Inverse folding.
């Protein structure tokens, strides 16, 4: 499995998307404001996603 890099767009948890801001050993920190409907979903601005739980959409 390829790990995401800073600036990649990833998809996780049934369609949520975000931009990778930081890559850690076991996870990435993702900015969710990338999504157009971000405000409607009432989510936190950033979240942590394990490398096993996403796929890279754009590099």
């Amino acid at each position: 499995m390829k790990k995401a890099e800073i600036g990649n767009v990833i998809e996780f948890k049934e369609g949520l998307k975000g931009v990778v801001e930081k890559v850690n050993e076991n996870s990435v920190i993702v900015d969710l404001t990338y999504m157009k409907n971000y405000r409607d979903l009432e989510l936190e601005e950033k979240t942590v996603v394990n490398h096993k739980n996403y796929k890279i959409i754009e590099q």
Observations:
- The radius of gyration is 10 Å.
- The longest strand covers residues 16-23.
- The CA atoms of residues 32 and 38 lie 7 Å apart.
